[in-house]
Specification:
By secondary structure, the chain is mainly α. It has a domain of 260 residues: Serine Threonine Protein Phosphatase 5, Tetratricopeptide repeat. It has 16 helices and nine strands. It has a three-stranded mixed beta sheet with strand order 6-7-8, with no helix packed on it. Strands 1-5 form a two-stranded antiparallel ribbon. It has a two-stranded antiparallel sheet with strand order 2-3. A hairpin with a 6-residue loop joins strand 7 and strand 8. Helix 2 runs antiparallel to helix 4, helix 5 runs antiparallel to helix 6 and helix 13 packs parallel to helix 14. The longest helix is centred in the first third of the chain and has 26 residues. It is globular and about 55 Å long. The relative contact order is 0.15.
Length: 429
């Protein structure tokens, strides 16, 4: 098995860029037949500063590729979805029993996320101080910031590449989130210097990301301040494209595991089917429109669970919400913790789903219930659960797994750093 850890070093920025450029358009090139391999760009022909936009966008695309896997695997871990897969390594996520030697955990979850942070950090290291690179620096900082948030929310501990792409020290979840706050601050300052609508969008996404990290850290007043001014209708999406030759990197990673994708094993569980809309057949549809699914007419890859497939991302090119004005409002309401404001916001969200006003007293629990619907399968739930514990609904408790032929669900609440990282990072004991 290949050893893929953040301690693997890529010497020089041009090699980093070359890893992610898979094809070029050569139509009209007079010396076409002199090109040795028309599908690969020679690393030596790329200058990371001159091609700063390509460099920064490549880093963000690495994050985009890792984001889909984070949604899938944390969704399995937190019971947002069921594991319709035969792989024991994938069922470990559904059972909340992820061993640190789990190869799927290393290759599909840890390594892509750690690499996205490393590439964002390289953008900051290499382009800082260069003229007219503010927009690219904002994108690099945003890439690193959201990668650190996901790592800080999902992993028990973490690490990140240091200058020169050197392996970093062991970091607590709190240290990862504190560093994310710093990167979001950098995004906002670079975006302000760059100007323009694209930069403004990144700045607002960073404000939401900062609020998310600060809320997770318990710094509620600062979280409220961070999201002030983000418009209610703001949405920052991670885009994907349907490139049949490179869907693993460029396509929507949740659709990869859904009906019509490459490995049909992402199953909508009954507790979300009870809430949402079943769009299997034409006719009258009832249920909450924020969760939509259908019966694919077959079992999942494991030939055990029926493949009830999500419709939030119904094709390879479906975009995924990374930050929004709606999330900013959730952050503000939870952080302020004013009962009247919380109840009013809860009822506003319930009305969107076609539900009657909430009449109970567990306001935080109902806020988390509405949040789990609004942000279903978007990789927010790990942070919610670690922050608010029992208030988050539908977490599978220790005990029998929904596949009784497999071992019981365990009591993990976060993901371990993989063995490969611990073995090869010289900063770890």
């Amino acid at each position: 098995m290949n050893k893929r850890t953040t301690s693997r070093r890529i010497r020089g920025p041009v090699h980093l860029v070359a890893l992610v450029i898979l094809a070029v358009t050569l139509t009209g090139c007079d010396d076409f037949f002199d090109v040795r391999n028309p599908n690969v760009i020679d690393a030596e022909t790329i200058d990371a500063v001159q091609d700063g936009d390509l460099f920064a966008r490549s880093a963000f695309q690495t994050f985009a590729s890792s984001y889909g896997n984070m949604i899938v695997y944390t969704g399995w871990f937190t019971n947002e979805a069921w594991v319709g897969d035969t792989f024991p390594t994938r069922n470990e996520f559904g059972r909340r029993a992820v061993d640190f030697t789990n190869g799927t955990h290393t290759d599909a979850v840890w390594f892509p996320l750690a690499r996205s942070i490393a590439q964002g950090e390289q953008v900051l290291e290499i382009l800082s101080g260069e003229p007219e690179q503010e927009l690219n620096l904002a994108r690099g900082a945003l890439t690193s910031g959201f990668g650190l948030v996901l790592m800080g929310e999902a992993f028990c501990e973490g690490t990140m590449a240091q200058p020169g792409n050197e392996p970093g020290p062991l970091m607590t979840s709190e240290q990862l989130l504190e560093t994310a706050v710093n990167r979001f601050e950098r995004t906002i300052s670079e975006a302000a210097a760059a100007g323009g609508s694209e930069a403004a969008g990144m700045a607002d996404a960073a404000r939401v990301g900062m609020g998310r990290a600060l809320l997770q850290l318990g710094r509620t007043d600062e979280a409220i301040q961070a999201v002030q001014g983000v418009a209610d209708d703001f949405v920052f999406n991670v885009p994907y494209v349907d490139d049949a030759g490179n869907r693993g990197r460029l396509g929507n990673g949740v659709f990869f595991f859904s009906a019509g994708g490459s490995r049909e094993s992402f199953v909508v569980p009954p507790h979300y089917r009870d809430i949402g809309q079943d769009l299997t057949d034409d006719g009258d549809v009832t249920g909450d429109p924020r969760i939509q699914f259908y019966d694919s007419g077959r079992d999942g890859q494991d030939n055990t669970l029926r493949l009830w497939s999500q419709l939030k991302y119904d094709n390879w090119a479906a975009a995924v919400d990374l930050a929004s004005g709606l999330e900013a409002r959730y952050i503000e309401v939870e952080a302020r913790n004013d009962p009247a404001e919380m109840r009013a916001f809860i009822n506003e969200r319930r009305a969107v789903g076609g539900h009657d006003p909430y009449e109970g007293d567990d306001l935080l629990g109902e806020l988390m219930a509405q949040r789990s619907i609004d942000f279903w399968i978007t990789a927010r739930r790990m942070g919610d659960w670690r922050r608010n514990g029992d208030a988050v609904p539908n977490i599978l408790p220790p005990g029998p797994y929904y596949k009784p032929e497999l071992p019981d669900v365990q009591n993990q609440t976060c993901l371990p750093i993989p063995f490969d990282e611990r073995q090869h990072n010289p900063n770890f004991d």
